[in-house]
Every structure is written in structure tokens, then in C-alpha cells.
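PROTEIN DATA CARD
Card holder: Thioredoxin domain-containing protein
Chain length: 197
Origin: Stachybotrys elegans
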Amino acid sequence: MQRFTSKAVRASAPAKLPSLSPSRSRPHGLSMPVSTQRRLQSSARAKNQIYDPIRNPDSFFTHLSLSSSSRTPLLTLWTASWCSNCKAVAPLVRSLVESGVGEAEGGVGLAFVEFDSPDIMSGTPNLALTYMINSLPTLLSFDAGEAQTETKVADARKLADREFLVEWIRTEARRHGGRGGGSSGAPLFGGLFGRGK
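Structure generated from the sequence above:
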């Protein structure tokens, strides 16, 4: 067994440490590997996300939380296995989201809610009742965890119209959770406690 002495340590080659050379392009003056720069640039751009199909309320609320935390609107297409219009609309909506429609406006997430899944139809809470889904297919957007019922689309003719869907997706993508945390100007609790002065 060899003993290390101060001479042995001095004689060994110094360890090669990563370079922290100054960089003119980085505001803090340190350079970064190109692979890291590329990864950061690609993650900075909004990307559309297609989630696994929703078959139970827990899965729904997980997707809703993911989209809320990333400040990305969640588009839900409510479908059923027996619905012929759903079989025509679903591939069109999916292809538009996959092709990047809405990414320039901030990106969207897409999830198909399988209405005829036992846990969706009879689960607690009953999601279809909660979000007033009375016909299939239905396209409903969620922003910051809230259903955007004023833009809900249940008309099969509109859902089959490519141009309409492109504009609808872009409009929903512009929301991107941007309401902020401040007051809307409306009285708190519907004015239950009077006007604040």
C-alpha cells in the first residue's frame, strides 16, 4: 500500500476543472455548453402537449393541475366509443394540435375525455354534469383550472370545420393562464359583505 505524501500530491497532475471562461453573449459573463443552451432554448418555446385519454376523475384533475401549473390551457374533447361524429372529429383535433396550431400563441394541452368510461359516467364527482356536457362530441377548454363554458363547442358541423377549429385553438391558446392574481374589480364574495372602502 502506497502512502501519500505532500510530494506525491504535488507531483500528480492537477485535476481538470470545467472552464468558466467569460462570454460576451451571456449577461453574467459565464459560458454554457451548447447542448445546455439548445435544451433551454427548446424548452422556452411553447409546445403543445397531448395527454393520455381521461378515464376517471382523478386523471382529469391531474391533467387539469398540470395545465394550470404550466399556465397552458387544457383543451378537452369529450367523446364516446359509440359516437360516430366523435370518430370523425377526434383525429382532426389531434392532428391540428400535433401540427403546432396554437404554439405561437402560447401552446395548449389536449386530452380526450372518454365519456363512456365507467368511472367518468358514474364517478364522483360526475364530470359530465359538473361541466354541462349534454352532447357528444364536445370541445371544452380550461384555463387556470376553470372551465371556459362561454367558448364550449358542441356543434358537430363546427367541430368538423378545420378553419373554425384552427381559430378556436389559437383563441384558447392566447389565454395561457394570464388572468394574474389580482382582483377583477368585482366585489368579493359577490358583494355579500358590502363594498370595500
